[in-house]
Every structure is written in C-alpha cells, then in structure tokens.
Amino acid sequence: MPVDLNGYWKMISSDNFEEYLKALDVNVAIRKIATLLKPDKDISHDGDHIVIKTLSTFKNYNMDFHVGKEFEEDLSGVDDRKCMTTISWDGDKLVCVQKGEIEGRGWTHSVDGDELHLELRAGGVVSKQVFKKS
Fold first, then answer.
1. Locate the Cytosolic fatty-acid binding proteins domain: which residues (predicted)?
2. How far does the chain reach from its first CA to its final CA, in angstroms?
3. Which residues pair with 8 in a beta bridge?
4. Which single residue of 46, 65, 79, 103 could bond 24 by disulfide (Cβ 3.0 to 4.6 Å)?
C-alpha cells in the first residue's frame, strides 16, 4: 500500500550530494551553490497523480506525473538533459528510473514517521537526503 506523501517537508540532512552532482557532470559553480542549499519539498499526492515541488532560494523544480506512466522529463536547470522517466511504487517506496545519457539514474522517496527520505542515484553514486514534515 503506497504511503501518503502529502505535505511540506524541510531538509534536515544531505550526504554525498556534490559527488552525485559530479556524476551528472554539473559544472563546478552550480555544484558549489547547490551544495549550500537546503531545499524544501512540497508534495501533493492524489491517487496516481503526484506533484513534487523542490523549492530553494536559487532554483525551483516541479515534477508533475502519474505513477506508472513513462514521460519525457526536461531537466533544464538541473543538468540540462532530457530523459525518459518512469515512476512506480515498490511497496511503500516511490521509485523513479530516468533513462538517458547517465547510467543508473533515478531516485527513491520513502517515509519513516515524520521524515521523508530521498535517495538520489547516478552513475554508481548515491546521495541521501532527509526532510522533516512541517
């Protein structure tokens, strides 16, 4: 049974994020800025329709998708690539697979109590971030 992701989540920790950005070939200036940010997540979850807004003082990124339906994701402002993205439930985890130039790219969201855990993957590198529900 999928968990309820609805809510506003504030970042409380981030590990190995710069290495993840290096795996995406993000330039050094953007990497340095991005690693200083503590973005929030605003998630609306209604059945198979999910909107994830990643909000920061530098850039915002919105994902609006239906679980199980592949779509072309434009990652302008992230690493300026496009990929074919599919997001599905694996038990109580929301798993994203992004097919494109970077092997093994994707992420997983899971909830543990009042914490949202995000695992980011790209090119064999894993970054973990934790957000607290506010």
1. 7-24
2. 23
3. 42
4. 79
Instruction: Concatenate the DSSP letters of all residues of 38-64 into one string.
Output: --EEEEEEETTEEEEEEE-SS--EEEE
In 3D, which of 4, 2, 46 has the Cα closest to residue 133?
4
Per-residue pLDDT tens digits of the chain, which is 134 residues long: 579 999 999 999 999 999 999 999 999 998 999 999 999 999 999 999 999 999 998 889 999 999 999 999 988 767 888 999 999 999 999 999 999 989 999 999 999 999 999 999 999 999 999 999 99
Evaluated on CA atoms 67, 70, 72, 76, the torsion sign reads positive
User: Residue ranges of the alpha helices (H) in the chain?
Assistant: 17-23, 28-36
46, two tokens: 């209604």
